Amino acid sequence: YDNIQVDGNVRSSGARPIAQVREAKASPSLVFDGKDSYVTIPHAPELSLPLGGTIEFWAYVEDFGNSLNPRFISKTGKDTGEGGWELFLANGAMPAMHMGGKFLGRAGIPMSRWTHFAFTVEDGLWLMYLDGQELGELRGGVLSTEETDLRLGGHAGGGFNFQGRMRDVRLWSEVRSASDIQAQMKQNLTG
């Protein structure tokens, strides 16, 4: 991808993440209240992962909150059945991904502990990792080309807010292998 930058948060250059949210100096993570806090990254074609890529982040779930399916990251319109992709907690505690009208969820995660999530996509095949271990795969449907923003901590169309913290959010323009994810998941972003 060509270099892009939006509000200092979205970048692309070789094997560097195409989007990253760095730790704030006053706090080591982004804090989401489960009600109305989220981060919006304006649409850029690269964020739709048209050629494949990797999404990874650390999350600390403080409460499964009032939302039945709180979103970590969402890049979809108001109706997820039409396309796009989302990474969330299904039924409160099950790491899940939804893309192009297809769904995959796996065993629950503990509250009050940092957990590493990674998702890769290449040629419509999505893989889900939890703490560096592959949990499952999904052959996704057609992803939307709609120009929607990427949202951290909630659904791109509104609601489904996450209660907890996220850090070291990375979107890569390359498909990272399981060994790449395991080798770099404990390395903090530095800038």
How is this fold's topology laid out?
Blueprint: E1 17-21, E2 30-33, E3 39-41, E4 53-61, E5 71-75, E6 85-90, E7 94-99, E8 102-105, E9 114-122, E10 125-130, E11 133-139, E12 150-152, E13 163-172, H1 178-184
Antiparallel strand pairs: 1-13, 2-13, 3-12, 4-9, 4-13, 5-6, 5-12, 6-7, 7-8, 9-10, 10-11
Could you explain how this protein is built, in words?
With 191 residues, the chain is mostly beta strands. The chain is 4% helix and 40% strand. The chain has 1 helix and 13 strands; from the N terminus they run βββββββββββββα. The protein has one helix spanning 178-184; strands spanning 17-21, 30-33, 39-41, 53-61, 71-75, 85-90, 94-99, 102-105, 114-122, 125-130, 133-139, 150-152, 163-172. Strands 1, 2, 4, 9, 10, 11 and 13 form a 7-stranded antiparallel sheet that branches. Strands 3-12-5-6-7-8 form a 6-stranded antiparallel sheet, with no helix packed on it. The longest helix has 7 residues, at 178-184. The model is unreliable at 1-27 (pLDDT under 50).
